């Protein structure tokens, strides 16, 4: 039985870094897969750092065709919603998500990782994240209320045995910038109607508006996902890193369409106060799939 990369479900880490890479000029994408796969050892044990590696779906399919989920595609085109709302496509070739107990260790491991990939790939997008008030995002609301438990999550969001990509999962990674001034000008009651939950204890509103965030992303409608969202940024420029995992691309893509107003003509109220800056899908292979490629990486050095 194949196992997932451990960092996906490693809750409680307080420092995070997301490094998105593009293949260096003249390089072939498939040449990047094995070296990144080999980065998992020994770095996963250094200072308690978890490292999760993901790849642009088309790149992984080219490199390991027998282990690629059918019909999985990158975020290759902007998603255009109503009211001229746009979710930009900023697909890159690979992502490394580092998480751990302290940022100094994350910082050092990230630098070592970038150095190891020098000449093969360059960093196209870098973001650092940290928890806010234990489990809240920067809107002040609890994030991840609908998350499945750690017992349930693997069965729900990992590709099942017998399917291409078994033990792996699909990651949607987006950076959302907050308009803090506009959001904080709302009353608590107005914020609660936009989210669809009470701010204090995250109880879902019985009379939540159809354009509320909860209504727009109802997992009972679209399917279960597992979120590892984190705040990012500075005091003057900040927001949320959306980090969502699913066994299928459908729940993720249809949720985005719903938020953009393409499902029922009603745009998610939260998108009036947050704006997506990036958008990419990555295939996150099983641990066994990465180890399978480690020997290939060693032969290229």
Task: Give the topology string: H per helix, E per strand.
Answer: EHHEHEEEHEHEHHHHEEEHEEH
Counting DSSP H or I runs of 4 or more residues, the number of helices is: 11
Largest sheet: 6 strands, antiparallel
Q: Structural class of the helices, strands and pairings?
A: alpha+beta
Q: How large is the share of residues in beta strands?
A: 15-25%
Number of strands: 12
Overall mean pLDDT: 93
Helix proportion: 25-40%
Describe this structure in words.
The protein has 301 residues and is α+β, with helices and mostly antiparallel strands. It is 28% helix and 23% strand. It contains 11 helices and 12 strands. It has helices at 30-38, 40-43, 57-63, 103-116, 153-157, 180-184, 188-195, 213-216, 219-222, 249-259, 287-299; strands at 15-23, 50-55, 79-80, 86-87, 94-100, 121-129, 169-178, 226-227, 230-233, 238-246, 274-276, 280-284. The strands form 3 sheets. Strands 7, 8, 9, 10, 11 and 12 form a 6-stranded antiparallel sheet that branches. A 4-stranded antiparallel sheet has the order 2-5-1-6. A two-stranded antiparallel ribbon has the order 3-4. A hairpin with a 4-residue loop joins strand 9 and strand 10. It is globular, with a radius of gyration of 19 Å. The model is unreliable at 297-301 (pLDDT under 50).
